[in-house]
Amino acid sequence: MNDAEFDDAPKQRSRLVTVARGVDIECGTPARHLVPNPILLTVRSPIVQVPAAAALISLLGVRRTLAGCVLPGWQTDRMDLPADSHVHSEWSWDTDLGAMDATCARAVALGLPAVAFTEHVDFTPFRAGDLAEKFGHLVTDGILTASELDVEGYLESVEKCRAKYPDLRILTGMEVGQPHRHAGEIADLLAQGTFDRMIGSLHCIPDGDEYAEPWELFPHYPADAAFRQYLAEIPRMVAESDVFDVLGHIDYPVRFWPEALGPFDPNVFEDELRHALRALAAGERALEINTRRPLDATILAWWREEGGQRVTFGSDAHLPEALGAGFAEAAAMAEAHGFRPDTKPENPWALTNKRRAGQPLLAVTIHDRSPGN
Known about the structure:
This protein is α/β, with parallel strands linked by helices. It has ten helices and 22 strands. The chain has a nine-stranded mixed sheet. Strands 1-5-2 form a three-stranded mixed sheet, with no helix packed on it. It has helices spanning 62-68, 100-110, 131-134, 151-164, 183-190, 214-217, 223-240, 270-282, 297-305, 327-336; strands at 2-4, 14-19, 24-27, 32-34, 39-44, 69-70, 74-76, 84-87, 114-121, 126-127, 139-140, 143-144, 169-177, 197-201, 205-207, 210-212, 246-247, 286-290, 310-314, 339-340, 349-351, 366-368. The chain is globular.
């Protein structure tokens, strides 16, 4: 039996109740899931007895699951999720399964307050590696040159979605790779429209006369050396470009960390990570909590210690189904480190020393709607 504890309030205010094995969940999303194992759930008072017909609530997806599901005979409080500020659609050159309209529909179904379509803008030619097979039309002599964003078509698509989903805040944006190396090209794009959210990302770093992504570097260089080179480039990017207000996925190379090295340990790179975070904070940028690979809480703690004031949340979704993935856990982690939502939900969360009195970081309230109650 798994222990799943969702309340950091004093234990006398809560008690454990059992969720039964083999019970179906009916979800707002088109899927039915079967409870694989019984779990234990701690709920805040007033305490209610969970009947045998209960539902799966996983430790790693409690808020997302509760927000999207109708439990037989039960109703749950909807948990507020942050805006997804890093989303891709069919307008990104590498997103063949992206769909802006379907992504907006999913955002509404999940209860997200806002989404930012930050389409890829990659002016740096880089070694194609394994991407050559899929994107051969963009590759010449082993070097991939991404297609340019169709700003007019993209903005027209955004306006159509804003009209179709008036209750969803839809932001325009770009995710710009290596912005410090392409000021002129980026300025030309910005002149073509209004962009609400600008993410600066480091996707590739110099390797001799070429540029390469981490997954292309790791087979040829020690991973620790490549990661340190990556981190050393971030302060230069901040110093040489003011076009972006959010740094995307500071741990990007960790997605491709060689299994032979064992789990990634941020403490091995504490000095380099702190240096990058310190430069980012001095540049008054926000740090993205990218949930494509959960950000290590240690890095977020260092961000606060180095003067970081704001965070955003990004699923980095390249298809609608990935939207908002891991946001409940990311939001709880951000709250635990003192970050709180802005009055405008599309804005970054800001650091505050205040904590709502008696407010647990993770709480589940279940209302008994079964017959006879």
